[in-house]
Write a structure and sequence with these properties.
The chain is an alpha/beta fold. It is built from seven helices and five strands, in the order βαβαβααβαβαα. The protein has helices spanning 21-31, 49-66, 77-84, 95-114, 132-146, 160-170, 182-187; strands at residues 13-18, 36-41, 69-72, 119-122, 149-150. A five-stranded parallel β-sheet has the order 3-2-1-4-5, with helices on both faces. Bound molecules: iron/sulfur cluster. Iron/sulfur cluster binds at residues 45, 92, 96-97, 100, 179-181, 183-184. Iron/sulfur cluster is lined by residues 45, 92, 96-97, 100, 179-181, 183-184.
Amino acid sequence: MQTIKISNGVKPKLLLHSCCAPCSIYVIEKLAQQFKITVFFYDPNVHPRKEYILRRDEMKNYAKKIGLDFEEGDYQTKDWFDKAQGLESEPEKGRRCEMCFDLRLSKTAVKARVEEYDAFATVLSISPHKDYQQISVIGNKLAHQFGINFLDRDWKKKNGFKIATKMSKEQNFYRQDYCGCIYSKKQQKVI
Ligand code: SF4
């Protein structure tokens, strides 16, 4: 990935994929000095719809509060379920999660390319229940495929997850107790 720098006082444009406010708050704080961030909420993996709306609205309201642009992707659950067929019993960090990252990051990468962002990124790696290597490989593959920079970071490093948890408690964010899909709900892990 090429170095992305502030040029003539203008911050580079970053399309930041977000899954929820608790996972995003720390990442946004880390990147806001360097980038002009647009938060992209594209998460057709989150079920049921009521839960999706809770997470979306919490993120949307926080983006508004701190003055960031917010965009929502299509809630195409059929596409997600079609791709999850045969992967229902996979554990977290398995092949279903790989598919899920690929779907969400593909949409983010294409949007970033078409709308002429300087880079795309995701907050997903902040969760200790997600495999950073899976996210990194997929993000870099898409960057190469679509000709757009991917900001490749393991956000859970340097106590990232712990700090994010503290920050979200201070904001009194709604916090879910499962990753997002109905299969992870059965496992009921706190992300
Ligand atoms: S556990 Fe999370 S990342 Fe994995 S498939 Fe389900 S929603 Fe996607």
